[in-house]
Fold this sequence. Notes:
- By secondary structure, this protein is of the alpha/beta class.
- It is 31% helix and 17% strand.
- It has nine helices and eleven strands.
- Helix 5 (155-168) links the parallel strand 6 and strand 7 (172-176).
- Helix 1 (59-67) packs parallel to helix 2.
- The longest helix has 22 residues, at 276-297.
- It is elongated, with a radius of gyration of 22 Å.
Amino acid sequence: MRNKNFKHHKNNRRGSGGFVPGDNLESNDSFKTEEDSTLSTDAQTPSASIKDEYQVEGRNAVTHLFQSNRAVDKLYIASGDRSFGNIIAMAKEAGVPIVQVSREKMRQMAITPKFQGVIALTSPQRYATIDEIFEHAKERNHKPFIIALDGIVDPHNLGAILRTANAAGADGVIIPKHRSVGLTATVAKVSAGAVEHTPVARVTNLSQTLDELKERGVWVYGAGPNVTSVYTQTDMSDSVCIVIGNEGFGISRHITQKCDFLVSIPMVGEIESLNASVAAALLMYEVVRQRKEKAMEN
């Protein structure tokens, strides 16, 4: 049950509450240009239509893709690059067709600027359900630790938040279906593979979803301006959902009204706000710190 008597700032439903908040793989001497049942050359260079398919780009992202349970349809590697031994071995073991293409053609294929000479085609990332996020917490034997994003539109921010969420041990990230970036190739690349491990739920109505979380015993915290409760002085060690707002406008008014508590991140310089992914990282690791301290006390 949600039965807390916090002495911290309770949401008073005022205003908008908007807070604007590659590792080198070993080379494989066995990789050569001779014919291989799974190795093709530029003759099979994909057409521009592959951009309509889901692409995962970069060494870390592709490595984690092969380590996940998601099917890989095809692997493209830069011709003459002998540093993809581990990735090629995983592709061959999975029976994935491997196609060599020139760097120039890969640049034309790539969605991200730093594709690092490797691109994988796969099915679109499957979004998780809210139940699966709670199941993730149950499997880890800890109270739910959830991140909700209210209108994050920059894929680099979403990717960075996913990477931090995974590192901090969060059980899942919730994003709205509309007015928000989804799981794109850029998000996958920036997340450094975290997108393959951290559940992401995409919901039609974030406001209703927060109500559901509260009904299931989760306390909802939002970062907002002009509040006296500093995040490091607010108890966030219980079942928690941290809400991070849009890069420019912060948390919307109706989502602010759904928050149980609003917390602030002190700003002592001339800049009045943090990047959304930085704000998210500070709040997530405060949850980690508090939970660790509480565990040591017990």
